[in-house]
Structure formats: C-alpha cells, structure tokens
Amino acid sequence: QVQLVESGGGLVQAGGSLRLSCAASRSIFSINVMGWYRQAPGNQRELVALITSGGTTDYADSVKGRFTTSRDSAKNTVYLQMNSLKPEDTAVYYCNAKGRRWGVDYDDWGQGTQVTVSS
Fold first, then answer.
1. How far apart, in whole angstroms, are the C-alpha atoms of residue 37 and residue 103?
2. How would residue 1 be classed by pLDDT, with cut points 50, 70 and 90?
3. Beta carbons of 50 and 42 less than 8 angstroms apart
C-alpha cells in the first residue's frame, strides 16, 4: 500500500498555471505507475497523465501540450504542471499509485485537490 498526499490546487483564471504535487510514502521508483486523474461534477474520473517507474509519460489528448508530469525521487514526489488552463479543466484532481509488489497488487489514491479555473 502507498499513502499519497496531494497539494497545490486552487482557483486560477483561464490561461493561468498551477502545479500539483503528490507525495508518496515510499520511493516512487518502486511504484510501477503513478497517475493523475480528475473528476468533474457529473463526470466519470478520467486519466490525465501518468509516469512509469522507468520515466515514460503519457497524457490525455485534452491536456497534451499544456500539462507536464515529472518527479523528484529525492522527495518521493510527483508533479503535474498545468499551463494554459481552461474552465473545462475544473475538477478534483487525484493522484494514483498502481502496480504489483511482492506478488500483491496495489491501486491507491490520494485525497484529491480541487482545481477551479474561472473564465
């Protein structure tokens, strides 16, 4: 199991930027995939970005070119840099850790952080 704590959400105007942080309770290199998801009211939770233990990243089409995920292994922290924000980016953003360790699958979530983009 991995404990995850997100921070960095808030209110920003359209076109602005925010950086979300997700601090993990163990080395992020031991976590197969760390993902950022978001859920807007009335919508399903959707994958926004991910980074694997090997450093591979992937993004939803809706955020490509605007969002970047990165990591700081010394701090066991993953980041989501969000630029050129749009009102449709408004959602609760969740950090997720997923994989298999010592033969046991894990799929753990943070508490979420609210991002609100005003027009």
1. 25
2. confident
3. no
